[in-house]
Design a protein that fits this description.
- It contains 14 helices and twelve strands.
- The protein has 382 residues and is of the alpha/beta class.
- Helix 2 packs across helix 3 and helix 9 packs parallel to helix 10.
- The longest helix has 17 residues.
- The protein is elongated and about 80 Å long.
- The N terminus is likely disordered.
Length: 382
């Protein structure tokens, strides 16, 4: 019997291929070649105010005056420095600028106004003037009827370290607010429809005279049954427009009857509701002077639902000449108020006060609206 010889098990070596799979191959990380000198980007040097002063051969203080639009720089020097600033792309460092002048370069804009287009237009006008001199705007809606109103504004000034404040109507009609701002030495400008402060603190619109112009227009067209939708009676602008309108009608032998006066809130909805009431009168009015363009748009809706044609059956006149006025059909006759200009003028006056370079801006700043006659006004049918 032949015995089978037992073979001793031996461990076979790992094939080279298997070893390659088990241990990933490591290669040295390639070193990128240096880019040619012509392709390398050299960081641009950020110019400082000292560089601008050296290039213009003037003092740093003169450059600062140009940046802040001070009037105490010769025009030739101003032009030269401005050109160097433009060509170098220099922009002032806001932190360094604030430390140097102990300012925040922040201006507050406070409002409590339901008329959004008005607020936006004032804001855009103010921003254009402020940003030219390196200021920014802090927009702060508020509730002027709140018991904490004054303390909230005081905290806003302190928290944001505001250099000054622009105040829109009807908040601007609050004399206690102006007193508080004077107490804490915060410069301010009030946009108002009446002279409730020193001229240096005001941008004033001539609402009374503007409403009188509307009355003259309607009288010339031959209207005698004339109605008016006023704004909230607590708004000074509403009082000014009502008195100017009714007095001008009386001067022409016409009467604004109490039944033809409705109290709105400068909104579309209030315009529609007030028009419903006025057009239910017998005899109904042939013309309605609305407190603003939003109110007038509400009158359009009610007139349409009642089947009245504008201006054949009803003449409608607004106030402000917002973009809405020319988009209505038929287009709205309205009193054009230069709202953006008012914002710009208020900002310019405030910067002059802060810089203590008021000059002519210390005098009264008055804007004069004018009537823009479009398709919504015409002679009465009967």
């Amino acid at each position: 019997m032949v015995k089978k010889s037992a073979k001793k098990a031996t461990r076979q070596p790992t094939p080279p291929a298997a070893a390659a799979r088990a241990l990933p191959e490591t290669r040295p990380t390639p070193v990128p070649e240096a880019a040619p000198a012509t392709l390398r980007r050299i960081p641009e040097k950020k110019h400082t105010i000292n560089d601008i002063a050296r290039l213009a051969n003037v003092s740093k203080k003169t450059v600062s005056r140009v940046i802040n639009e001070s009037p105490f720089v010769r025009e030739e020097t101003r032009t030269r420095i401005a050109e160097i600033i433009r060509s170098t792309g220099f922009t002032p460092d806001p932190q360094a600028r604030g430390l140097a002048f102990r300012r925040s370069y922040l201006i507050g804009l406070v409002y409590d106004n339901p008329n959004a287009p008005y607020v936006i237009n004032v804001q855009e006008g103010a921003l254009g003037a402020l940003r030219r001199v390196g200021y920014e705007l802090v927009v702060h809606p508020c509730d002027r009827n709140s018991p904490e109103f004054l303390s909230d504004i005081r905290q806003l000034v302190s928290r944001q370290k505001l250099d000054g404040m622009l105040i829109l109507p009807p908040v601007s009609e609050n004399n206690a607010l102006a007193d508080m701002l004077r107490e804490i030495s915060c410069p301010y400008i009030r946009i108002l429809s009446a002279a409730l402060d020193e001229p240096r603190n005001l941008v004033q619109s001539m609402d009374r005279q503007s409403a009188a112009e509307v009355a003259e227009h309607l009288a010339k067209l031959g209207h005698t049954r004339i109605a008016m939708i006023i704004g909230p009676p607590t708004y000074r602008s509403s009082q000014e427009r009502l008195e100017g309108f009714s007095n001008a009608l009386a001067d022409r032998g016409l009467t604004l009857a109490p039944d033809y006066i409705a109290e709105g809130s400068y909104t579309f909805e209030s315009g529609a509701a007030c028009a419903e009431m006025l057009l239910s009168r017998s005899p109904r009015p042939t013309a309605i002077f609305a407190g603003n363009d939003e109110t007038a748009a509400g009158v359009y809706r009610t007139a349409y639902l009642r089947g009245l044609r504008i201006p054949h059956d009803l003449t409608i006149i607004g106030f402000d000449d917002s973009p809405l006025a020319s988009r209505l059909c038929p287009s709205l006759t309205t009193m054009r108020q230069p709202i953006r200009d008012m914002g710009r003028l208020a900002a310019e006056k405030l910067i002059a006060k802060i810089s203590r370079t008021e000059g002519p801006s210390a005098a009264a700043t008055t804007v004069f609206p004018h009537l823009v006659v479009r398709e919504s006004s015409g002679r009465p049918a009967n």
